[in-house]
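Quick illustration, no need to memorize.
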Amino acid sequence: MKMRAFATLMAGVFLMAAAPAPTDDPNAYLEEINGARALDFAKAENARSLPQLQNDPRYAGFYADALKIATATDRIPAVGFAGTGELRDFWQDATHVRGIWRTTTLASYRSGEPQFRTLIDLDALARSEKANWVWHGATCLAPEDRLCLVELSDGGKDAASVREFDTVTGQFVTGGFSLPEAKSNYAWLDRDTLILGTEWAKGEVTESGYPYVVKRLKRGQPLSSATELFRGDVKDVSVAPTVLRDPSGQVQAVLIERATDFFNTEHHLLTANGVVKLDLPTKSTVQGFVDGRLVVSLEEDWTAKGFKQGDLIDFDLAAVKAHPAQLAASLVLRPTQSQAIEQVATTRSRLVVALYDNVKGQVLSFRRGPQGWTSTRLDLPKDSSIGISSASDHDDRMLIGVTSFLEPSSQWLADATAGKPELLKTTPARFDASRDVVEQFWATSKDGTKVPYFVVRPKDLKLDGQAPTLLYAYGGFQVSQTPSYAATVGKLWLERGGVYVIANIRGGGEFGPRWHNAGLKLNRMRVYDDFFAVSRDLIDRKITNPKKLGIMGGSNGGLLMGVALTQHPELYNAVVVQVPLFDMIGYTHIGAGASWVGEYGDPAIPAERAVIETYSPYQRLKAGQPYPKVLIETSTKDDRVHPAHARKAAARLKELGYDFLYYENIDGGHAAAANLNERAMRQALEYTYLSQRLMD
């Protein structure tokens, strides 16, 4: 498949360089991820900052509440279909802080008291191997799903090692497939064959740190003997294989997808005579295969064929294989201006779409007949976020998650062909939501665009501008911010009278590709203007005022926080900067930065650099500004964004004489937490800080 969302996949290696590093940066030493001097800086800042938060009498209670929520045994398991009758999930709780991979039957799960069998106990494995293992998932061979490639990360890094596991014996396969630590892309061809891209030789990766050579590996072969199938370019982001199967597990096609940047992908078909490029736009995503049809979404207009960005289209796979350079597509769904396709899944015979309308979800089941596709809307709760958790290839059943800000999340079993979905489980309430209400407002951005946002507030809130308010946003990579049950926010913030706001700014996917494309590269300031418009609208509505308004964002959202800090510090009194991008002039040589030029632009290109210079937080920090005391968080093991961004932000603030707080988790990866205890600690630090800044 095409590259997954930024928040879940993109990673890089800090040793690779897309462009020469600046030579005049006194803080460049902080880019050495495990350098002694860099770690000394991080440890010193931790030692200075943590007591300011952990000695607050509220911290212990916040930590206990956050840990109780994170480790609750009555939360909904994230189960998914496997094989013909199994459900599997990865579960963490107070006893299993690293987690267990486990399995049960659908019948047992529906009983309300499921009996799970443990497949892998990650806590026990980490102890026995003296390793800081973090679960990265498993890829299993259909249709039995018995043999699985299990991915284990050291401390939460994106790079991971891969081992073959037998779910029947409950053991790693002796002499089975094994891949050393890398950011590998792989797929099963059959039980004795993998198609994969990995770091075949040291340094043989793209400038973004991903594989660009795909080979076929047979069971028992050393990596050095694998047969090359396709070679991209070191300037690419990544090259990855995808295997399309019918419900019986038979291979129908093998695709090799070459991501030339984060959003542009060449789609290639593996044939008996080699690899052939498909006649598809580069801004398109292969979404699935069902009923002989290849389903594709478009992130740009396909003018030659009469299709528009946001369309969902399909092809006869047999015709694709016969004439890969002359494709003929049909339209499945064209969203309206207020809609966006958030998710696409396939069952044995149905195509299923999670569709959002003004950021409120629904699920449509499509059936193909002689006249094309027709759809039926599933009977699920309204005014919620609705996601397809898992879809079965063996029948037409699906597991669907439903969530909203104040209603506890629920899990449903649905049949895509007929019938009313069955409610399986509901999360117990984690906070008292009876006093709160949710509203949706629209702010007007600098260019006149209407930008929606959700406000979760006390019903009896006085509109006097005095409410402690936390505003969250992301604004990038077509990642949507939809309503979700705010368990930790509810307990640590809403119950204490706070207001919580989610902004659906451009750069996200709330209104499809057009909403994302509007904020790319030269138009990046639109994303930030949207955020400032929402901030001012909250103040104009007298919900809050700048002394009571705090903001939070992570990763790309951490960059947003840096822009807000440096461009409009007068609007905010608290800024939580989570695992951020910050040095946008140097970002292409830090971490996976080279892979994101499709989003931000390339500082090596003068026109794009000129725009980046207008907002790059690291370069725009200067003395004498009304910056609030910020909280900056990162992780030493974050090999995606890289801790250098946060470190350099802290170092520059220190040089300029500003007060700030800093926390670097020595493990944890891009999530800044390697286990549930660390996650609870991070959340407790954040809400202690927010309370100090906005409630005291």
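The chain has a mean pLDDT of 94.
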